[in-house]
Amino acid sequence: MPFASVKDMRREARRRLPRAVFDFFAGGADDEVTLRDNARAFQRWALLPRILRPCPSRHLGVSLWKNDAPLAMPIVAAPTAFHRLAHPEGELGTARALAQADALFIVSMASTVALEDIAAAAHGAAKSGHARLWFQLYVQPDRAFTARLIRRAEAAGFEALVITVDSPVFGRRDRDWRNGFFDLPAGLSCETLREPQGDGQLGPPRPIAFSAAFSWSIVDEVRKMTSLPIVLKGILHPADALLALEHEVSAIYISNHGGRQLDGAPATLDVLPAIARVVAGRLPILVDGGVRRGTDVLKALALGANAVGVGRSLLWGLATEGPDGVARVLAMLRDELDRALAMCGCSSLDEVSPALVGPRREPLK
Ligand SMILES: Cc1cc2nc3c(=O)[nH]c(=O)nc-3n(C[C@H](O)[C@H](O)[C@H](O)COP(=O)(O)O)c2cc1C
Ligand SMILES: CC(C)CC(=O)C(=O)O
């Protein structure tokens, strides 16, 4: 059956993946209220198209920072763990597909392929020879280990660090409890978390530690470890966006971890306008959660995002067709965004503004 949409890819991924793996990818915390609300929030907004505005071709490129090479499109791969659960090529396949599309890959620290191998695959596949890669980090209580990870990411050509700050403890996911899914199956592990031992051989992967003891000082600490731009992922409150500004981060990443951490947290699209208001263009804003269509991307851009992260949608592509599936999902979303821009009379993302959206009275069923 041909795939018309991300929804079709999800259906096929569900058919192919073992139940526990599908549930790990698809699931959220507790009652999954936030998980569902992320996607529903897009239906609470309507697009308000403008007519007869010439836009024979649309420019989807976006620059997040001054003097930074633009991204080919405002759709980026949110960091997601364990790609080899979805497909044997794992993050290598994802990296190649994203690099070929000139799309940014935010690589999870919990990757099932080592970050150096991911970077090599991405740079080898990029048409320019230089892929766009950021590294997602859970700061570890062992700061020396954290610093070594950052140095490896720098050496491999990653261009920014994304510190995930929504996980002082790990969210409790009912589906994983029911399925008894608490660890990677034999043969797979978090390869980035291995380090050379005294004998030069790689040691076992270090477990990821979460810490509820962290404060804003970790941002300042990490800054001393690197000259890479720092992006804070997991911001939901305008007051925290202002604190992020004070701590001189380079971008704000609005996320509730795809509904996998605090159930009952708001849908990301619902907090975006208030955060965009206080940030007032001083920093780029990324947002993720529930993006399944190019029109979702357009709504997020209209409400103040500069780029939009996509998590599960790409995993469904990877599970269904490997790297080709990742490429297919990206192409679908890109094409849908391009069409939506044309139908709204916009020839570039600069023309996308809050005037393009209005509230819808009833969420669609
Ligand atoms: C299977 C899975 C694994 C994830 N792993 C990570 C991770 O390692 N680090 C992180 O910061 N976020 C992680 N996330 C959260 C994503 O970065 C992102 O916030 C979320 O997937 C966005 O929602 P969406 O899946 O609806 O697009 C994960 C999400 C999923 C679904
Ligand atoms: C391995 C986990 C740390 C990955 C994660 O962030 C998640 O499952 O949401």
Average pLDDT level: 97
- N-to-C CA distance: 26 Å
So what's the overall shape? globular
Weakly predicted, low-confidence segments: none
Strand order of the largest sheet: 2-9-8-7-6-5-4-3
- Structure classification: alpha/beta
Strand content: 5-15%
The share of residues in helices is: 25-40%
Which ligands occur here?
flavin mononucleotide, 2-OXO-4-methylpentanoic acid
* Major sheet details: 8 strands, parallel
State the helix count. 13
Oligomerization status of the protein chains: single chain
Number of strands: 10
Q: Radius of gyration, rounded?
A: 19 Å
Report on this structure.
This protein is 39% helix and 11% strand. It has 365 residues and is an alpha/beta fold. The strands form 2 sheets. The chain has an 8-stranded parallel beta sheet. The protein has a two-stranded antiparallel ribbon with strand order 1-10. Strand 6 (230-235), helix 9 (238-246) and strand 7 form a beta-alpha-beta unit. The chain is globular, with a radius of gyration of 19 Å. The chain starts with 5 loop residues before the first helix and ends in a 6-residue tail after the last strand. The model has no long low-confidence stretch (mean pLDDT 97).
Give me a quick take on this structure:
This protein has 365 residues and is an alpha/beta fold.
Characteristic terms for this protein:
globular, 13 helices, 39% helix, binds flavin mononucleotide, alpha/beta, 11% strand, eight-stranded parallel β-sheet, FMN_hydac_DH_AS
